[in-house]
Amino acid sequence: xxxxxxxxxxxxxxxxxxxxxxxxxxxxxxxxxxxxxxxxxxxxxxxxxxxxxxxxxxxxxxxxxxxxxxxxxxxxxxxxxxxxxxxxxxxxxxxxxxxxxxxxxxxxxxxxxxxxxxxxxxxxxxxxxxxxxxxxxxxxxxxxxxxxxxxxxxxxxxxxxxxxxxxxxxxxxxxxxxx
Length: 179
Hints:
Layout: E1 2-4, E2 7-8, H1 13-24, E3 54-57, E4 62-67, E5 70-84, E6 91-98, E7 109-113, E8 120-128, E9 132-141, E10 154-163, E11 169-175
Parallel strand pairs: 1-11, 5-11
Antiparallel strand pairs: 2-10, 3-7, 4-5, 5-8, 6-7, 6-9, 9-10
């Protein structure tokens, strides 16, 4: 398991990625799940959640990658996460997995919890195993900036790219701390 206690005092580039994911996934507050649609690798669209979480990204067990006329399967894997927070602030918790730092475009997987119960566990699913991912968590304090996190929001991230286990999962732990 990878653990992170690195905290940022201002919204990070990961917060931008989370904001992009909200727009790309059509997540207007987490009540209904967004859909990321088919990506360039031919992966399946994201799955919609309801009643407390939404998930975007690629789904299924394998995506198809085109290589000059032939198609080869890319095994998928998941990132199981546990977000720890012992403070009293409230808001929507959002998590994202991105393939580059700084992030460029929407995340590969996204999940939000409008009313998180800490420690909050979950899973970012359907990630291509031939890529490495950075993981971020943002607590939108007061739910006042769903598209653009503000300076009051709490952010934690895993600063080292994580390798995905084909047809399996890895675990990460992120700790949010009050400013």
